[in-house]
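Lab notebook, design round three. We kept the backbone fixed and only want residue identities now. Task for the bench partner: fill in a sequence for the structure below.
Input structure tokens:
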């Protein structure tokens, strides 16, 4: 996959009557291009300058819009690239973690005498522990990228709200009964 050759674009930024951003085919295309450039490692500042965003935060917002909008292909490609990078980091860390690491002091492997009189190298647990931490960080980043750690929305209903709704329903039922039986208020 070759890095794209960017073309400067000073696209019109459509706004509604209230000044709110309005998405158009031109802005969707620009946001998709920003997402693609980000996948190639471009900085937000460079993307903003190249594609005519006001500043780096607007470039970032454009990339976020691209990832949420109908323009899914470049956004999905960015996610795939990041996931593959994270998975490669995880594989590398795992290879290092499962390897044997000998304890070295003053440039020499530390050994201890076994029962049969042979010297046995002492394994160093620190590289494995460091790799476990590294692997956990990669997994955390992957979960964040995939939205696995997104907070869940929970609706809380207070006891006061429940009691108020019960009173409203009771009053409604009383009115209905009066109407059905012809009792006027």
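Proposed sequence:
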């Amino acid at each position: 996959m070759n890095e794209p050759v960017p073309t400067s674009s000073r696209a019109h930024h459509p706004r509604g009557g209230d000044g709110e951003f309005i998405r158009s085919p031109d802005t969707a295309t620009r946001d998709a291009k920003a997402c693609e450039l980000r996948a190639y490692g471009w900085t937000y500042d460079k993307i903003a300058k190249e594609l005519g965003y006001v500043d780096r935060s607007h470039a970032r917002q454009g990339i976020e819009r691209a990832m949420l909008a109908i323009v899914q292909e470049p956004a999905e490609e960015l996610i795939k690239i990041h996931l593959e990078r994270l998975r490669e980091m995880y594989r590398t860390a795992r290879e290092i973690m499962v390897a044997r690491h000998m304890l070295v002091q003053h440039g020499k492997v530390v050994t201890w005498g076994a029962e049969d009189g042979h010297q046995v190298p002492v394994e160093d647990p620190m590289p494995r522990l460091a790799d476990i931490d590294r692997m956990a960080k990669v997994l955390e980043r992957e979960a964040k990228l995939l939205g696995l750690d997104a907070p869940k929305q929970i609706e809380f209903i207070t006891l006061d709200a429940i009691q108020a709704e019960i009173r409203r329903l009771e009053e409604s039922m009383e009115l209905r009964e009066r109407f059905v039986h012809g009792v006027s208020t």
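Keep this in mind before ordering anything: The chain has three domains: 1-70, 76-146, 155-185.
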